[in-house]
UniProtKB/TrEMBL annotation:
Protein keywords: ATP-binding, Cell membrane, Membrane, Nucleotide-binding, Sulfate transport, Translocase, Transport
Organism: Rubrivivax albus
Transmembrane segments: none
Gene Ontology MF terms: ABC-type sulfate transporter activity; ATP binding; ATP hydrolysis activity
SMART domains for this protein: AAA
Name listed for the protein in its UniProt record: Sulfate ABC transporter ATP-binding protein
Domain ABC transporter: 3-237
PROSITE patterns xref list: ABC_TRANSPORTER_1 (PS00211), ABC_TRANSPORTER_2 (PS50893)
Record's GO cellular component terms: ATP-binding cassette (ABC) transporter complex
InterPro entries: AAA+_ATPase, ABC_SmlMolc_Importer, ABC_transporter-like_ATP-bd, ABC_transporter-like_CS, P-loop_NTPase, Sulph_transpt1, TOBE-like
Protein's UniProt keywords contain Nucleotide-binding: yes
Amino acid sequence: MSIEVRGLQKAFGPVVVCDHLDLDIASGELVALLGPSGSGKTTLLRIIAGLEVPDAGQVLFNGEDTTHTDVRQRHVGFVFQHYALFAHMTIFENVAFGLRVRPKATRPSDADIRRKVQELLQLVQLDSVGHRYPHQLSGGQRQRIALARALAVEPRVLLLDEPFGALDAKVRKELRRWLRRLHDEVHLTSVFVTHDQEEAMEVADRVVVMNQGRIEQVGTPEALYDTPATPFVLRFLSDVAPWGEGFVRPQDLTVQPHAGEGTVPAVLAQVLTAGPRTRLEFRRADGGGDIDVELPREQVQALRATTSLRLGHTLHLRAERVTRFQG
Ligand SMILES: Nc1ncnc2c1ncn2[C@@H]1O[C@H](COP(=O)(O)OP(=O)(O)OP(=O)(O)O)[C@@H](O)[C@H]1O
């Protein structure tokens, strides 16, 4: 099911939260809404869901205006950050819930419900926990069950609001990959909200970067990285420093012992190694502020053979690539 957002406008009092938004989401796409806190991501998701009414504009599902369709008629599945499973029900019953509460005429038989729930538990790779209660699962497992529960009613669209926000970094990473694989299997049009650029870039087919109620750019992770449309997008996706009339990323700088053409002198302030990459923090000697360089660890080792990496030592930075914006 495709989703089209047309001229969407929403304000809370004087604060414009969605400022004439236009967005096309193709059927089967996995799209991330990415932006800082307060940029309007959740409000846009809630309007798509039908949980919030826009002041103006439309949301179309498969070309059909749903702006005034009741949330229950939209057939959307939700997963929220704190998606409370029913504590007094088994995992099996939690997943079955949406099917059991259907009106009799459309309710599947008990045998069909059992088969369906079992299939979903397999899909989220938790088929052995159906008899347990929510408190007997880890946070990551509970979110997978929340997803199975959302999928049980065969939604036309899946909406996820910071689904992994409450989990620790390692589990988050696992669930990201898992969501990507699940989406590749199920191909359900899905929109998820995140403020974590790594999460958006790793999981989504396309990323919508939002800032103060506006869409700054929509593109594939590669396109956003290679050709950011605005300084905001570049800054939000990478830890850039100003360089002449443009910006430079930590991984686009090299370090050399002597001054050369286009180099900038900088004083080494800190060396931090995290896994295979090393971050060298510098202070520009020309008063240009702090600037970080990120190099593969082997390159730093090679550099050490010829150059002192003593803190306080002055070295020379060269930008291999500078991102500039028109006007
Ligand atoms: N029901 C409401 N009443 C008044 N203001 C609201 C309401 N919902 C959201 N806002 C305001 O709208 C702005 C955008 O909120 P929204 O939740 O859409 O942003 P967000 O990008 O999802 O941020 P976060 O990542 O912090 O959730 C914020 O300034 C918020 O305080």
